[in-house]
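W.,

You were right to be curious about this one. When I first looked at the sequence I had no strong expectations either way, so I just let the prediction run and decided to look at it fresh. Below is the sequence, 65 residues in total, followed by the output.
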Amino acid sequence: MVKIDQERCKGCGLCIDACPHGLLKFSDRVNKQGYQYALCTDQQKCTGCALCAEVCPDVCIEVYK
């Protein structure tokens, strides 16, 4: 399971590029800072590799197995 703190996300897209399964994408909405935040499209397909969390410069992603 991927948990993304949507209010801290700056929308850099590094996590989207890092996901080997292509499960992350930008939201159609923006957060309070005005950034499109990342979200997981299918929690069930997430393997818990945590590559997204490792590349996040703002440490706003947590991964649970």
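Here's what jumped out at me. Residues 14-18 form the longest helix (5 residues). And, maybe more interesting for your project: The chain has one domain: 2-63.

Coffee later to discuss?

I.
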